[in-house]
Amino acid sequence: MEYLAREVPRWRNEHACYSCHNNGDAARVLIVGLARGHDVRRALRDTLEWLSNPERWNSNAGGEGGGDDKRLARIQFALAAVAAANAALVPQSAVDAAAELVAADQRPDGSWRLDSSASLGSPATYGTPLATAFALRVLSHARAPARPDAMARGVDWLRRVEALNAPDAVALLIGLGDAKDETSSRQRHRALDFLKRSQGPDGGWGAYPTTASEPFDTAIAVLALLERSRRPDLAAPVYNGTELETSIARGREYLVRAQLPDGSWPETTRPARQESYAQRISTTAWAALALMGESQPRQERDRVVSTPKLQTSTPPRH
C-alpha cells in the first residue's frame, strides 16, 4: 500500500499526463484500501478529480504510461472510477460517462480490441479477451448504457473464445459471470478446468501450463476464482468441496512469497524477465487486489480465505 501511495501521485507530478497504470490500476488499490481504513486520501486527491471527469480522458497527453493505447486507458480509468463510485468517492454520473466512452470502443463483433490485441494478455496490454471482460464489468455498473445491446454482444463474443492461456480463461470467468445458458456454462467449465490443471506446484500460475508462475497471471487467476467462490455451484464439478478455497489460498501464498522488500511485485512481461515501470506498477496493483480480495462483495469477503499481510516497509527501488 505504501509503495503505491508513493507512485500513484508521483507520475502526474513528474509528467504531463495521467497514467492508466498509476492513476488507473494502482489507484484502484488505494481506493479499496481507503475504504478499509488506510490513510491514502492525500495520494488519491488528484486522481479522484481526474476519475470524476471522464470527458477529459480523451485529451490526456500520450507518452509512456499515459494514453498511448487510449482504448486500454479508458477501460483502466473506468474500472478505477467504478471502484471509486462504489466507495462514494466519485459520483455515479462519472461511471455512467465512463461507460459511454468504453461502449463506443466496442467492435462490431462484440469485442474490445486494443492496439496491442494480438499479444498475449499482460498487465499493461490486457489483450482482447481480458479487455472485453473488463469492459463488460464497467458497463454492468452504469445506470443507462449508451448501447443497450453492448453487453449482450460482448458476452456472445466471449462464448466463442477458446481459452488457450490463463488470461483468456480468466476473461471467460469474469466476462461470462453467472450466465446460465448452456454455452456459457461449458465455457466456464473449460476455463475452470484450465486453471485447475495449470496451477503450479508453487501455487502460482503462468500464462501457460508449461511456463513458470508469474505474479500477474496468479493474481488474475485468484481474483477470478474468488468470484467463483461466491457461487460454488457454478464452479462444480471442476472444483469440489474445499478444492476451490485451497487453490485460492495457495495462489495467495505464492503472491506473498513473491512480493519484494519495497512492497512491489516483479513485473510480469511478455517475454518474461524484462524491465518495465508500467508493467511493474500494474503487476503490483493486480497482486495487491488479489490479496485484498477486491472482487468479493464486502459481506462475502471474510468467509472465503483470510487475507495475508502485504509488506510495506522499505522505500521503492528505481
How would you describe what is shown here?
There is one protein chain. With about 325 residues, this protein is mainly alpha-helical. It contains 14 helices and no strands. It starts with a helix and ends in a 17-residue tail after the last helix.
Give me some keywords for this one.
single chain; 318 residues; mainly alpha; 14 helices; 55% helix; 0% strand
H and E order: HHHHHHHHHHHHHH
- Mean pLDDT across the residues is 88
Euclidean distance between termini CA atoms: 17 Å
Q: Which regions have little confidence, pLDDT < 50, spanning 5+ residues?
A: 63-67, 295-318
Proportion of strand residues: under 5%
User: What structural class do helix, strand and pairing data support?
Assistant: mainly alpha
Largest sheet: none
Task: Evaluate the radius of gyration.
Answer: 18 Å
Helix share bin: 40-55%
The number of distinct β-strands equals: 0
**What is the 3D shape?**
globular
Please work out how many helical segments DSSP would assign. Answer: 14
Quick overview of this protein structure:
55% of the residues lie in helices and 0% in strands. With 318 residues, it is mainly alpha-helical.
